[in-house]
Amino acid sequence: MTFLSRIKAAARRRLFAPAGPLSPDASTIDLDDASIAADPFPHYDRLRASGSVQHLAKHGSWIVLGYDDARHVLGDAATFSNAPYADVDAVLLGADPPRQAIVRRVLARRFAAQRLAQLDSTAQAAARALIEHEMDAVSGYAAPISRAVAADLIGFDQSAVADIVEGTRRSLETDAPLAALIATLDEIAPRAAMFEEIAAEVGEILGDAEVRSLIRLLWLAATTTTERVIAQAVLRLATDHALAARLRGEPDLLAPFVEEVLRLHPPEHLLPRATTAPAVIGGVEIPAGALVQVCVAAANRDPVRFEQPHQLRLDRREKRHLAFGSGVHHCLGAPLGRHVVAASLTTLLAAAPRLRLRTNAADLPFFRTASALSPLELPIAL
Q: How many Å apart are CA 36 and CA 56, to the nearest integer?
């Protein structure tokens, strides 16, 4: 972005800065604070109004809030490394080119058009089997649909899925739930059909532990990500009856609806990167070895890029959001996620002419962290 462009963008951001009481600035804000995590979007707006790139003193990191700067960081893997993801998966998600590209090509074949069509059928069948007059749209719908598709993709049988579900439950009772879940997934990974397939294809460059890591990543990405998007979409439909009726009558609008849900409610708000060299982003100097959080949840609501950024608009012309990232680390499973979400919503809308919440929206429990915001329970009636 040129100097003049930055000046113009800053002016537009000041114009769109939210009015109202002051909230914490970059020197004092704590994104992990429960009150902020419950509704981070006004705070993102206020931070962005002071500049697209800010240093968060309490987090010891930089945050990138503007769309153009976020896309630039995501597209520069040489300067902004994915290394912070190494604890989750160091083989693909936490790796950088050129090695990452080799693994990516191997996995990309698992998401070819013919395979996506098969997985779409799996999603539809799972959705139809789960429909009940009253149900929890998270634990009784979004989660099992996501697991069914992930199991088909990876090649887990029902016994393996049951063991993962139980292991997930047990992990939540520990002091380190992510570490416990990773241990469970790594133990079960060799039971996947894909385990032997990948090992046979890339055995010369990947060892046993690395193939386990890939299976783990595929399961987590195919379940958690999709579940969150389905839940947010169902919440929208169950609280906006006119919108639900319009989508039933105009099914071609379902695709733009899914894109708007993804834009407004990305499954991960923050995508971490580590600088490999000093960098200047948005006019801000960032040293080498720094942690940079790309806030796609803020970038997707940047008023410089999106008109009426907080509104769900089915006629939106600018559709290039960052919910699935960008650049060489753009999510491989993005097409699959879109297929599964669409299949879930199509089935639900057809079966639920009077879709509604069975409780007040304000009383719904949410998973609230600096990185994600998603309903934990969503009791609905059809």
A: 14
Please give the average per-residue pLDDT across 235-259, as a whole number. 97
Please check whether residue 223 is in contact with residue 247, taking contact to mean a CB–CB distance below 8 angstroms.
Answer: no
Residues in CB range of 16: below 8 A, 6 or more apart = 45, 49, 303, 304
Residue 205 pLDDT: 84
The secondary structure of the chain, three-state, reads CCHHHHHHHHHHHHHCCCCCCCCCCCCCCCCCCHHHHCCCHHHHHHHHHCCCEEEECCCCEEEECCHHHHHHHHHCCCCEECHHHCCCCCCCCCCCCCHHHHHHHHHHHHHCHHHHHHHHHHHHHHHHHHCCCEEECHHHHHHHHHHHHHHHHHCCCHHHHHHHHHHHHHHCCCCCHHHHHHHHHHHHHHHCHHHHHHHHHHCCCCCHHHHHHHHHHHHHHHHHHHHHHHHHHHHHHHHCHHHHHHHHHCHHHHHHHHHHHHHHCCCCCEEEEEECCCEEECCEEECCCCEEEEEHHHHCCCCCCCCCCCCCCCCCCCCCCCCCCCHHHCCCCHHHHHHHHHHHHHHHHHHCCCCEECCCHHHCCEEECCCCEEECCCEEEC
Position 15, amino acid? L
Quote the CA–CA distance of 343 and 101 in Å, as a whole number: 30
Per-residue pLDDT tens over the stretch 307-343: 999 999 999 988 899 999 999 999 999 999 999 999 9
Contact 262, 67 (CB under 8 A): no
Q: Which of 265, 266, 275, 273 minimizes the C-alpha distance to 293? A: 273
**pLDDT tens figures, 78-118:** 999 999 999 999 999 999 988 899 899 989 999 999 999 99
Q: How far apart are CA 21 and CA 265, in angstroms?
A: 25
By CB neighbour count within 10 A (0-12 exposed, 13-18 middle, 19+ buried), where does 134 fall? exposed
| CA 40 – CA 65 distance, rounded (Å) | 12
Residue-range domains of the chain with CATH:
3-156+192-381 (1.10.630.10)
**pLDDT tens per residue, range 266-287:** 999 999 999 999 999 999 999 9
